[in-house]
Amino acid sequence: MHTDFHKFSTWVPDTWLNQSTITFCMPTADTLEAPLSGGKAQAHSAANLVVTWEAANGQNLKDYGEKRLTKLKTSLPGFSLSEQGIWSLEGQDIFYGEYHIDMTPPLTQLLPIKSVHGDFVCLTGTAIQNSYAE
Question: Which one-letter DSSP state was computed for residue 133?
Fold first, then answer.
């Protein structure tokens, strides 16, 4: 498998699994910590977008999304689901979930999942609640 990303190019055997994680962050602010940093990162962004993917292996999009939300619910204390469902955009189904995490500071996460060439691509957006609209 050959891959190119942001001026980086590499090749690995086709049998290897791509479990990459890509993280994009808002510009930094001196008064905020990065979401889910556990207080370790100072002066980082109030929001981030994490891109991950996993082979679908014949799973149904709705079932996969619901399983992922269930796993989050059991692993994140203070998890509260706001809504979930399926969007249809230009003939493509997208699973989504929006939930809150009761912590200091309180966080909101939006999780859209889309099937792309046999993989489920997950975009997890995390924001401090009072910065969510940004």
Answer: T
- How far, in Å, CA of 27 to CA of 45, rounded? 5
In this prediction the pTM is 0.75
Helices (H), the chain: 61-75
| Whether the predicted pLDDT of 68 surpasses 90 | yes
Average pLDDT along the chain: 83
Of 70, 73, 57, 63, give the one whose Cα is nearest residue 95: 63
Within a 13 Å sphere around the CA of 59, how many CA atoms are in the beta-carbon half? 18
Instruction: Return the structure tokens found at 115.
Output: 């099937």
Both tokens assigned to 125 = 């957006």
Asked if pLDDT for residue 32 goes beyond 70, the answer is no
Phi, psi of 41 (to 5 degrees): -105, 120
The proportion of the chain whose per-residue pLDDT surpasses 90, expressed as a percent, equals 43
3-state DSSP assignment of residue 23: strand
In Å, what is the CA distance from 105 to each residue of 38, 78, 128? Answer: 10, 12, 6
Q: What SS3 state is found at 83?
A: strand
Which residue, 21, 15, 18, is CA-closest to 3? 18
